[in-house]
Design brief:
The structure holds two protein chains of two kinds. Chain A is α+β, with helices and mostly antiparallel strands. Chain A has four helices and 13 strands. Chain A has one domain: outer membrane lipoprotein receptor (LolB), chain A (Clam), CATH 2.50.20.10. By secondary structure, chain B is mainly beta. In chain B, the strands form three sheets. Chain B has an 18-stranded antiparallel barrel. In chain B, strands 8-9 form a two-stranded antiparallel ribbon. The chains are: A alpha+beta, B mainly beta.
């Protein structure tokens, strides 16, 4: 109930703010979310990292996913390519996974299962489905495009001593992932410190927290983030290490050839 | 068998050599117990067990500057035959020459084509016995000793796979699973098994498989050619008194890509029966044209469904019909239709997987259903159970011959690093 009240208040403030400042505020908010999106998901022209994912359920039972992730931006804020090489656990070791993120239309996804030498395209119209059984959806991993939501700056605050904007985002078209998202965006780095996801009833469903932000090659990077599923009382930690930007990853790498022959020069 | 021994020796040598440069070498694998039994009392097999095995799989990977080595070795205690066994599933060296040539040399698993458990242009060795008794999916593919080269050129990717020695499919031999014996004109157990005779180990009997693949828009489109033998012993040599693998060429094409929120695939091939060009050899299969169309999509969150329709049209059918009719045996339809569907449901944050795969042929009047449930108890431990169910109006058809082999199984796997 308290949450509902809070949300109603926030929405009321948001509404007033929109009326008061008119269209320009909405444009500012959209511009801010665009910049934030680019800082968060399009850092550098390409990037690679070792990822340690830990899924902790409410009983404290932990499951791990270790993988190397490569990313190439074909266009800032537009098409992107992702390549994932799984290391652990043992049943997924050496599997590879590739996404061609398409700003217009559906993404393309492929998986390669080396034990049967099988390349398999995966139907990818559901961006809200879980990424490897974690609390992150595919869209949480590669980013939901800012133009799919309307954004409103609903206030200012501080987070760990840093100045932040509070932004509310609502999907333009009905979306399973959330009805309202409230983000706390660092005014300087433009990275989110926290994202709260609410459903249509105003219930908090998911919480993303940037646990640690570090400069890597001069680029502010969230090196440890968590996603909490409030209902399931489950948390997924994603910890990045060996991060590198602008390594010169080539477009050819994101093809079936390399899906079957992992580029070992990038894998630790 | 001899070549396998040499590979094992090589495997051991590499293992020893690489152990001195730890860090670039990775060893992992699993321990697994699989137990299954038939549920049909009428089965002419000797025992009631279809599987009773403890398996240790070791995988070794070495990444070097010039290429990488991968080995996969299985050790097995088989309770059905009360014997110990091992098999080198894979042992290959993979390297690159220049920018556009990739090679994979050694014992390996090979797959291509678009079908889901339906193979037209994939004429690589399969293990249907493993497939029918609940072993992991990876055991459907049998290893082949081969050299695989891929040339990436402006037209596309040209792959050539050369296997010096023919490798046939592994099929039920009557011990775990009964099968139809044309000689007996009945479903039989192991006492009636006659081992097929493989082609001689001559260079002229080596297998060649090629594929030219190119992405057209978002569709991976390919042309195929295979020169070798039928992978099943579908011929019979009267002088040898044994089944044989007749010569086969396959010419085919396929395309696969995203459409309507799902994935569509289309494949076709002409199976050219080289030892029976006119279709008048009663002991050798006639040539045929095989086509396949399939579509898969996620219908609701965590439920993926696919449908496939395959047809197989026999050439020179009239000749076949007369011959088969004269013998008084089963006469198949000119066009054989096969419909399949796979349902995969993920539950409990993808820890539980429920799967059903059903093959149904309206022309052969037979059905094969493969059901399984799997639970990832921890990252290391996976529990699974399932069933293989067969039904058929005739004993001679592809699945009808296995109608006494209905079986259930349970499996536990411990994966390690």
């Amino acid at each position: 109930m308290k949450r509902m009240m809070q949300l109603t208040m926030v929405l009321a403030i948001a509404l007033m703010a929109t009326i008061a400042t008119g269209a320009s505020a909405a444009e500012d908010a959209t511009e801010l979310m665009k910049k934030s999106h680019l800082a968060y998901y399009y850092a550098g022209d390409d990037g690679l990292a070792e990822v340690d994912m830990r899924i902790v359920d409410k009983k404290g039972k932990e499951r791990i996913r270790n993988f190397t992730m490569l990313r190439l931006d074909n266009e800032q804020g537009g098409d992107q390519k992702y390549y994932t090489y799984f290391k652990k656990p043992s049943d997924v070791a050496r599997m590879t996974f590739m996404v061609h993120k398409n700003s217009e239309g559906n993404d393309l996804r492929w998986i390669y299962v080396p034990a049967v030498d099988l390349v398999k395209p995966i139907s990818a119209d559901d961006k809200n489905s879980s990424f490897v059984g974690s609390d992150f959806s595919y869209e949480d991993v590669s980013g939901r495009h800012w133009s799919e939501d309307t954004h409103t700056i609903v206030g200012d605050s501080t987070w760990d001593g840093a100045a932040v904007y509070i932004v509310e985002s609502k999907p333009k078209e009905e979306y399973d992932g959330f009805a309202v998202k409230r983000s706390y965006i660092n005014k300087e780095s433009l990275l989110p410190h926290k994202e709260l996801y609410f459903d249509e009833d105003g219930e908090l469903i998911k919480i993303m927290t940037a646990e640690e932000i570090k400069e890597v090659d001069g680029i502010a990077t969230i090196v440890h983030r968590t996603m909490e599923d409030v209902d399931k009382e489950r948390v997924t930690h994603v910890i990045f290490s060996d991060i590198e930007y602008n390594v010169g990853i080539e477009n050819d790498l994101f093809t079936e050839r390399f899906l079957k022959n992992p580029p070992m020069q990038y894998i630790r | 068998m001899k070549t396998s021994r040499i590979y094992i020796a090589l495997f051991a040598v590499v293992l020893l050599l690489t152990s001195s440069v730890q860090g670039e070498v990775m060893i992992d694998g699993f321990l697994q117990g699989l137990y299954g039994g038939r549920v049909d009392k009428a089965n002419p097999t000797i025992g009631e067990q279809t599987a009773s095995e403890s398996r240790l799989q070791l995988r070794v990977q070495h990444w070097g500057d010039n290429g990488n080595f991968f080995g996969r070795l299985d050790f097995l205690y088989d309770g059905v035959t009360d014997s110990y066994d091992w098999e080198l599933r894979e042992a290959y060296f993979r390297f690159r020459l220049g920018n556009n040539l990739d090679f994979k040399v050694g014992r390996q698993i090979l797959t291509w084509g678009t079908g889901d458990l339906i193979f037209i242009n994939d004429v690589f060795a399969k293990d249907y016995q493993s497939f029918f008794i609940g072993r992991d999916d990876q055991y459907l593919k049998a290893p082949q000793n081969a050299i695989r080269g891929a040339w990436y050129n402006p037209v596309g990717e040209l792959s050539v796979v050369w296997s010096p020695r023919f490798e046939g499919n592994r099929l039920p031999q009557g011990v775990r699973l009964s099968y139809y014996s044309p000689l007996d004109q009945a479903i039989v157990g192991s006492s009636r098994y006659i081992a097929p005779v493989e082609p001689d180990a001559d260079f002229k009997n080596s297998e060649l498989a090629t594929r030219l693949q190119r992405r057209i828009s978002n569709f991976a489109t390919a042309l195929y050619f295979y020169r070798g033998f039928y992978k099943n012993p579908v011929g019979f040599d009267m002088s040898l008194g044994a089944p044989i693998y007749p010569r086969l060429h396959v010419y085919g094409a396929s395309t696969r890509g995203p459409i309507a929120g799902g994935i569509l695939w289309i494949e076709g091939g002409y199976l050219d029966s080289r030892d029976d060009p006119d279709g008048d050899e009663p002991m050798i299969p006639n040539s045929s044209v095989s086509t396949l169309v399939g579509f898969e999509r996620q219908v609701v969150q965590n439920l993926t469904i696919n449908l496939q329709w395959q047809t197989d049209m026999m050439m020179d059918y009239e000749t076949y019909e007369q011959q088969a009719g004269a013998q008084g045996g089963y006469v198949r339809d000119e066009i054989r239709h096969l419909l399949t569907t796979r349902w995969t449901k993920l539950l409990n944050s993808e820890l539980v997987t429920l799967s059903a795969f059903v093959f149904y042929s309206p022309t052969d009047e037979d059905v094969y259903a493969k059901l399984s449930a799997e639970y990832k108890y921890t990252d290391q431990i996976t529990l699974a159970a399932g069933a293989n169910l067969f039904e058929g109006s005739y004993v001679e058809t592809e699945f009808g011959q296995f109608q006494f082999n209905d079986n259930v199984w349970a499996k536990m796997t411990y994966g390690f690093f």
